[in-house]
């Protein structure tokens, strides 16, 4: 599933490609992609004549800000957008087509068919599902250490599933949680409440650094991700631990192991990320 850096890259690419274009008409070829409104014909009609003002991101969601509406799009497993000439042949698994007045066409393809689109009157999208319950944006100025500490520090949940919970922090999927925990030298099964202030500071810094580094190179193309121009991301070449099971740790040389934490495949260096059982006394914070 595309995570924050990949969705951010798609957002930036689409802004370069389609901002300012006017929608002439829309064709929905797979109705279940459209979650709101229920009437597919209404979705197509409401978008006619709408100008694309900008593309924004909230967590792993894209926000197409139009003249009067906002379309919220989630790519899920393998959804992707691409800009085509209007007479280009349709590729397999093309489910929604946005035809512009200049003759070009934005096409949404999705092999797995798990992606979703919601259309809201402008200003209402942040007060309703699916965006209303999302947590902190880790690349936003509001993602301060204190804000991070307030949502993490006092919870007894294991740290990895907590970081994956979009109600607390958005956009950090499996790849970037493993990478961030490795950089911070924290075992993914540690209880969040056991982390010292210093460990929380290291983790906060590691999350920001990992996501920023990935955004700079266009995200990670582990399986099928490409941006709106068909280009792959390059961060997979910089991964320290994710996908490197049975290989030597870049830091200590010991073997990286793969296990399951919170139902997700998890990569750990047991030397660099020792599991400390029980609660840690935070003497330095008293």
From TrEMBL:
Binds 1 zinc ion per subunit. Its EC number is 3.2.2.23, 4.2.99.18. The keyword DNA-binding applies. The keyword Hydrolase applies. The active site is at 2 (schiff-base intermediate with dna), 3 (proton donor), 60 (proton donor), 264 (proton donor). One of its GO terms (biological process) is base-excision repair. One of its GO terms (molecular function) is zinc ion binding. Pfam families: Fapy_DNA_glyco, H2TH, zf-FPG_IleRS. InterPro entries: DNA_glyclase_Znf_dom_DNA_BS, FPG_cat, FPG_Glyclase, FPG_N, H2TH_FPG, Ribosomal_uS13-like_H2TH, Znf_DNA_glyclase/AP_lyase, Znf_FPG/IleRS. Its cofactor is Zn(2+). DNA binds at residues 93, 112, 155. It catalyses: Hydrolysis of DNA containing ring-opened 7-methylguanine residues, releasing 2,6-diamino-4-hydroxy-5-(N-methyl)formamidopyrimidine; 2'-deoxyribonucleotide-(2'-deoxyribose 5'-phosphate)-2'-deoxyribonucleotide-DNA = a 3'-end 2'-deoxyribonucleotide-(2,3-dehydro-2,3-deoxyribose 5'-phosphate)-DNA + a 5'-end 5'-phospho-2'-deoxyribonucleoside-DNA + H(+). Residues 2-115 form the Formamidopyrimidine-DNA glycosylase catalytic domain. Keywords: DNA damage, DNA repair, DNA-binding, Glycosidase, Hydrolase, Lyase, Metal-binding, Multifunctional enzyme, Zinc, Zinc-finger. Residues 240-274 form the FPG-type domain. Involved in base excision repair of DNA damaged by oxidation or by mutagenic agents. Acts as DNA glycosylase that recognizes and removes damaged bases. Has a preference for oxidized purines, such as 7,8-dihydro-8-oxoguanine (8-oxoG). Has AP (apurinic/apyrimidinic) lyase activity and introduces nicks in the DNA strand. Cleaves the DNA backbone by beta-delta elimination to generate a single-strand break at the site of the removed base with both 3'- and 5'-phosphates. Monomer. Belongs to the FPG family. This is Formamidopyrimidine-DNA glycosylase.
């Amino acid at each position: 599933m595309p995570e924050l850096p990949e969705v951010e890259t798609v957002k930036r690419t689409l802004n370069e490609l389609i901002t300012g274009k006017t929608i002439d008409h829309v064709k929905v070829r797979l109705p279940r992609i459209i979650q709101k409104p229920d009437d597919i014909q209404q979705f197509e009609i409401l978008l006619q004549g709408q100008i694309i003002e900008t593309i924004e991101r909230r967590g792993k969601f894209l926000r197409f800000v139009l003249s009067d509406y906002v379309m919220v799009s989630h790519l899920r497993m393998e959804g992707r957008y691409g800009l085509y000439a209007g007479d280009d042949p349709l590729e397999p698994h093309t489910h929604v087509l946005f035809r512009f007045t200049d003759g070009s066409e934005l096409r949404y393809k999705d092999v797995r068919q798990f992606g979703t689109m919601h259309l809201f009157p402008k200003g209402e999208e942040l007060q309703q599902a699916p965006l209303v319950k999302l947590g902190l944006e880790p690349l936003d100025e509001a993602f301060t250490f204190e804000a991070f500490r307030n949502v993490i520090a006092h919870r007894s949940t294991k740290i990895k599933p907590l970081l994956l919970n979009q109600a607390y922090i958005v956009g950090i999927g499996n790849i970037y949680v493993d990478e961030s925990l490795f950089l911070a030298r924290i075992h993914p099964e540690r209880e969040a409440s056991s982390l010292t202030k210093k460990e929380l500071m290291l983790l906060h810094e590691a999350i920001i650094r990992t996501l920023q580094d990935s955004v700079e190179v266009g995200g990670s193309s582990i399986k099928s991700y490409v941006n709106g121009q068909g280009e792959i991301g390059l961060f997979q070449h910089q991964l320290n631990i994710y996908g490197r099971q049975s290989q030597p740790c870049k830091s200590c040389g010991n073997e990286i192991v793969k296990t399951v934490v919170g139902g997700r495949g998890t990569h750990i260096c047991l030397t660099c990320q020792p599991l400390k059982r029980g609660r840690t006394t935070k003497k330095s914070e008293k």
